[in-house]
Request: fold
Amino acid sequence: MSNYKTVFFTLGILQIILGIFMLIPTIAQLFYKEIDSSFFGASIVTIIFGTLFFLSNLDHDRKLNLQQAFLLTALSWLSIAIFGSLPFIFSNIEFSFTNAFFESMSGITTTGSTIISNLENMPKGILLWRALLQWLGGIGIIVMAITLMPIMNVGGMQLFKISNNDSSEKILPKSKEIALRLIYIYSGLTLLCAISYKILGMNIFDSLTHSMTTIATGGFSNYNDSIGYFDSFSIEISAMIFIILGSLPFIAYIKFLNGDRKIFISDIQIKTFLKIIIFSILIISVYLIINDSTQLNLRSVLFNIISILTGTGYVNGQFDNWGGFPLILFLGLMFIGGCAGSTTCGIKIFRIQILYSFIINQLKKLIYPKGIFILKYDQNPVDNKFVASIISFIYLYFVIFFIITALLSLTGLNFITAISGAATSISNVGPGLGSIIGPNGNFSSLPDLSKWILTLGMILGRLELFAILVLFLPSFWRN
Reply:
């Protein structure tokens, strides 16, 4: 395993950082007089393992090749989910390992599905830890999407390389400066969101935790009624603003700071993202007016569309009683997601755009067989292999979705719960549809096997499918 010393060295650093973050909830425990040894014990265990990985691989060569980059990506998320479950297991609350791992994986992948049915009665330390997991998962996916995924050529993400000089042999050194800038931007947005929530009426604890899960588009809340608990339109407006900010490509923030002041109105991903929001609001509103005007609540329509599209999963009402068509539209929005290089998941806007352009080009070729049509994205030619990777990603995305749906059905779940559970896991959305895992439901009553299937869907969706599946190809390791 000497060739993978850099991988395990990096894993050690990540585990040490995770262990340090575990000490933060102890402050909440002291303040709210809910002292136990859960977080301190989990922190010690995590730091010890991290230190062992760190010290035993000090002689690493400070480089990552392509195989090691894939392995590091998968092991990072898996190890953080495993060690992140320790505070739940060590707590006074009776968490089984399945439930603890499900909650931890849902947090770190910013999915937002929960097995906790009585959030209001949870210790503050547990609530804070759930928020911290989502916050760490949010910044983790941004850094990975902008620095590692383009180099790994995952699902067409190579279109978003920072520079043309990226080399798979020297990933970490070139990524360090970019990662630091992303962390500063991400932390700044979180702070602004927390201040906004506090000004608008949340207490300090709620404003802190909800700001972390808002920017991360994770959706973990401290209340069973989610954001609807506060019954405040101003808080919901603030949430929508910062959810959208978290759903934009973070590379746009870097470009803005570098002097491109028009990036937020010129970026084609952002423009399409906003158009989808507006179109969805209009179509749902028209549907409700035609079919049942008493159900029309623009405040609820606007909030839930933004929350579902971005995979945040906050809710301010039960949208599953609006009728059949809105549920189908919400299911479609779950698949789309936000912009590449943001905290959102799903297929992503840029893939939808390129697929649309590809279809239009194919239709033109049918009409004008001798014509030459060059596929472009943002005025730049798109290579055929990029298109192929995007088409294969979308195809595989739906294949895995149907497989997860079938497996969930085999565990005894009804059709609506199975299909929406599969969608919410692979798209990292949070709430599903129906009476069990719907807007105000939770995943606690599902069989353990269903929960393990859903956690698999969460990590596959979060890491863009190929980053996990490629590890099981023998030819990949021989290359």
